[in-house]
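RECORD TYPE: inverse folding
INPUT: structure tokens
STRUCTURE:
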């Protein structure tokens, strides 16, 4: 069976980024750099590598820098081209999607992830689509969403990126209630019989957590039309997906790769180190700098 292609990706970028204050006082958290690229740029590249052509950003106030990032910057470009700085020009604008393939929607109030995704309903229309949360980064050989699209091509329905976490952390994530009787063909797939948003370790049905990668059927919008606030008083995407179970299959996909939760300081700094070490041009210098840092210990202790 063939399944409708995933052409559109939604990026909810309305969050306030309070964990990163004061850096995020006047700058969106999605513009924080990991090495030399903003978080949102990695998310965009991942969407593109998975075959997406339309990029829908659900923004909030104070997010202009994201729009500017996805536009030309004429003064800089003309300066770079006068100086014949080909590489810098490439990094500035060669990757921009064609006009009309990128859109920005305002989520006027931060009512939760489910609400942010619902704000994109008219832009997405009646077709399956993907959601990427830029603060979840996955360092992998094959980009995470591409892996998921391949799995989706086999099973259709809804596919969520999942990974095992220590039980004490279940309260920070959506957790999968695994259908142990189902035997999906792909060894990385598991079938969900339920999902719970941020359960306490005692109540969590498993330790399999959802990361910020989703392939969803458009029916989720009808459910979100009527979705009441859930955990944390927010309209939860997890709750709406749960309601689709039985109508449309929901699979978790254990992606290949390492996830960095850049929603918090430690994950973000760790991602910077890991992504820097991946780079051929700075790998060796990074290793010796890091050795020095560890050898030195804490300076202000
Ligand atoms: C959101 C989702 C949660 C998911 C997480 C992944 O939570 O609601 O189900 O596990 O992203 O990062 P948030 O991080 O916005 O609190």
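DESIGNED SEQUENCE:
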């Amino acid at each position: 069976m063939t399944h409708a292609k995933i052409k559109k990706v939604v990026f909810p970028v309305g969050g306030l980024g309070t964990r990163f204050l004061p850096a995020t006082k006047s700058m969106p958290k999605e513009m924080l750099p990991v090495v030399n690229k903003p978080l949102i740029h990695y998310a965009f590249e991942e969407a593109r590598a998975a075959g997406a052509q339309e990029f829908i950003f659900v923004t909030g106030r104070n997010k202009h820098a994201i729009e500017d990032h996805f536009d030309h910057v004429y003064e800089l470009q003309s300066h770079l081209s006068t100086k014949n700085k080909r590489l810098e020009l490439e990094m500035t604008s060669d990757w921009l999607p064609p006009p009309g393939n990128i859109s920005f929607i305002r989520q006027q109030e931060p009512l939760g992830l489910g609400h942010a995704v619902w704000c994109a309903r008219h832009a997405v229309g009646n077709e399956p689509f993907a959601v990427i949360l830029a603060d979840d980064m996955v360092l992998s050989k094959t980009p995470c969403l591409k892996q998921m699209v391949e799995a989706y091509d086999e099973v259709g329905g809804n596919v969520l990126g999942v990974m095992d976490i220590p039980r004490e952390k279940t309260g920070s994530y959506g957790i999968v209630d695994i259908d142990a009787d189902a035997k999906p063909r792909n060894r990385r797939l598991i079938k969900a019989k339920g999902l719970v948003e941020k359960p306490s370790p005692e109540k969590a049905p498993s330790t399999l957590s959802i990361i910020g990668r989703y392939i969803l059927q458009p029916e989720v919008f009808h459910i979100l039309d009527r979705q009441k606030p859930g955990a944390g008083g927010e309209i939860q995407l997890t709750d709406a997906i749960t309601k689709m179970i039985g109508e449309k299959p929901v699979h978790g996909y254990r992606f290949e790769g390492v996830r960095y939760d850049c929603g918090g300081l430690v994950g973000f700094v760790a991602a910077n180190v890991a992504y820097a070490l991946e780079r051929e041009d700075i790998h060796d210098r990074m290793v010796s700098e890091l050795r020095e840092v560890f050898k030195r210990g804490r300076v202000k202790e």
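NOTES: The pocket of 1-O-phosphono-alpha-D-glucopyranose is lined by residues 113, 133, 136, 173-174, 197, 209-212, 236-238, 263 (CB under 6 Å).
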